[in-house]
Design brief:
Blueprint (H helix, E strand, L loop, with lengths): L2 H12 L11 H10 L5 H9 L2 H4 L4 H4 L4 H10 L7 H9 L2 H14 L2 H4 L4 H18 L14 H23 L10 H20 L2 H12 L2
Helix pairs in contact: 1-3, 2-3, 2-8, 3-6, 3-8, 6-8, 8-10, 10-11, 10-13, 11-12
Length: 220
């Protein structure tokens, strides 16, 4: 059985009448998520199916026909699989196949070109949502001990917000592309502070999650 082809056919049928927030056929998003996964047929099949259980419950029974790893991943990717967001992301984080698909899903949803098609207020809310998801999913497997009462995910969200704020301040202060040596001391210090926060954030996150987050904000 070609499970990838089977998954593609089921997803195409299930999402046939659906549109995304920009008014595009929803299956286009699903296809891009699947296309982003290489050399892993189980993950690619799960990517085709990743929204079927949640968004097309009338087709959920047919997902049970797939091999157990694919079925389990698709089940975890449904919001109904957990009582709240914390448990939802924790379960995905512990399942490599589901995690691979979820990161590809966020990468596509957070693509700056897609966000620019939306109302700015909605795009901003979605950016915050995807940042929170990446904080939950993107923590390094062996995080450094900080001594902070905040959880590692909360610390990542705090650093993400600090990095965004510093980036906005740098852009407002400089107003142009320049080097540190061209700037007054206080502006150069601001750039240095931004770069330090970005470097620490990168050190605390898995590379793929960090790049998704960085791309989302660099292009909008």
């Amino acid at each position: 059985m070609d499970w990838v082809a089977h998954a593609r056919a089921l997803a195409t049928e299930a999402h046939a009448s659906q549109r995304d927030k920009a008014g595009r056929p929803y299956i286009e998003h699903v296809a891009r998520v699947a296309a982003a996964i290489h050399d892993d047929d189980a993950a690619k099949a799960a990517a085709w199916l990743h929204d079927v259980v949640e968004d097309c419950p009338q087709f959920a029974d047919r997902v049970r026909d797939f091999p157990q790893p694919i079925h389990d991943a698709v089940t975890l990717l449904s919001r109904q699989s957990a009582p709240d967001a914390a448990h939802y992301y924790a379960n995905i984080r512990q399942h490599p196949l589901a995690l691979k698909v979820k990161l590809a899903d966020i990468a596509d949803n957070a693509d700056p070109q897609r966000l620019r098609l939306l109302d700015p207020e909605l795009a901003g809310r979605l950016q915050e949502k995807y940042s929170a998801a990446l904080a939950e999913l993107g923590e390094r497997r062996s995080p450094q001990k900080t001594g902070s009462p905040a959880s590692p995910q909360q610390r990542l969200q705090q650093m993400m917000e600090a990095a965004r704020t510093l980036e906005q301040l740098v852009r407002a202060a400089t107003g142009r592309s320049t080097t540190d040596c061209d700037l007054p001391a206080h502006q150069a210090a601001l750039i240095q502070a931004r770069d330090l926060v970005f470097a620490e954030l990168e050190a605390q996150m898995e590379p793929e999650a960090f790049m998704i987050w960085r791309t989302m904000y660099s292009g909008t």
